[in-house]
Amino acid sequence: MRILAFLLAILHALTAMPAAYAQKNVPIVRDAEIEALVEEYAQPILKAAGLSRSGIEIVLVNDPNFNAFVAGRRIFIHAGALLTAETPNEVIGVIAHEAGHIAGGHQERLRQQLARAKTMAVVALLAGIGASVAGATTNSGQLAGAGVGIAAGGSEAARRSVLGYQRTEEATADRSAIEYLERTGQSPRGMLKTFERMSRDLALAGINVDPYQLSHPVPRERIANLQSLVAASRFADRKDPPALQLRHDLMRAKLAAYTAGPNAAARLFRDPGGLPRAYADAITAYLYGNPRDALARVDRLIAAQPRNAYFHELRAEILVKANNPQEAANAYAKAISLAPGSPGLLQVGYGQALLSTGAPDLIRKAASELKAGLTREPEYVNGYRFLAQAYGQLGDIGAAELATAEGHFHSGQYRDAKIFAARAQTKMKQGSPGWLRAQDIIDYRPPDK
């Protein structure tokens, strides 16, 4: 039975990695500017794929490697993919490929293929055990060895069956991605560039690949197929709009400054007078320098783009660090007024700044802004700590306990969440909205993994 357990472990590792990754405490990037831009990239593609009303969520993973995958209704994109992609079109191509997996129902069929592979492995194992038993009873070492060979051969056949299925689905997702890009009038050249880069990385690493051991198509075959599809596209030579390219460069500069060290942006953007480099320099001054220098730099950015919500957000963060919460709150309010959509993350920052003023007349407004922001961004767990503080200062201990319970709940710490929810209920009127929410937390049973 150890052979069976080992085989099933291999199959699970090969085919269920994205789901397992999503179940772990994945380091997530939460940033209003980056999320808004990636959402803008994704929406036309999701609409073309028939997924615009399917509740698809884009999740940014704090990982420097170039990678993206799907798990359930979520598309996970590594920060390294955004940092490496030189144009919006490259990221859009990645999103289109992953949308192809979701629209094609590949995850469900992969589970079915895994079940079939497990059956193949079990049959091979039983056949091998039978041959081994026969060899033992006849004192035939050759027959017993053949039994081991049957079991091992069966496991290899099952593994290759799953990998072969995955290669087929990857190729299908590539074709679907090209179709979505065509429907939205966007070039597939960025997608081709992405896979060419991946192929070069393999070559530079000196990796020789066995095509039967891969879960993705052989790089040269994939690139050849994509080159043919790009050549046939009406939009092959269409460029990203300059304004979108600038926003993309600002995003990359921001990621470089926050995740890759103080000199990373200078390696990406050689022009010291360009806006992306200036943005990264302002963030670097905020992180590693002094607030006065950082504030002067961000004020120059705002002078260049006075309606850029995220320059005002950076100004607010610098002012918080400089212990000037009132001015920080004003900067957050300005950022919220300029940001697209409903910027929940900015509202949480605004509420935190109001709370930091310590002014009694602003605490209630702080609680209101924090609650509104967390209603839009319920999984932004850091905000619940500030909401609990605000309610505590207002003397509403039951609401403070419930906010703490919510923080634990959305962190996956269900035991602690239930303890604080039960404490909150003792301070609330039975049947009130807060009491009922606390009861929901108490009654929650996490799904089986």
Task: Write a short abstract of this structure.
This protein is mainly alpha-helical and 449 residues long. The protein is 72% helix and 3% strand. Strands 1-3-2 form a three-stranded mixed beta sheet, with helices on both faces.
Report on this model:
The protein is mainly alpha-helical. It has 2 domains: 1-240, no CATH class; 242-443, Tetratricopeptide repeat domain (Serine Threonine Protein Phosphatase 5, Tetratricopeptide repeat, Alpha Horseshoe), CATH 1.25.40. The protein is 72% helix and 3% strand. The protein contains 21 helices and 3 strands. It has a 3-stranded mixed sheet, with helices on both faces. A hairpin with a 2-residue loop joins strand 2 and strand 3. Helix 8 (189-204) runs antiparallel to helix 9 and helix 19 packs antiparallel against helix 20 (414-425). The chain is globular and about 65 Å long. Mean pLDDT is 82; it is low at 1-24, 127-134, 158-165 and 203-218. Its EC number is 3.4.-.-. One of its GO terms (molecular function) is peptidase activity. Residues 30-229 form the Peptidase M48 domain. Its cofactor is Zn(2+). It holds the Pfam family Peptidase_M48.
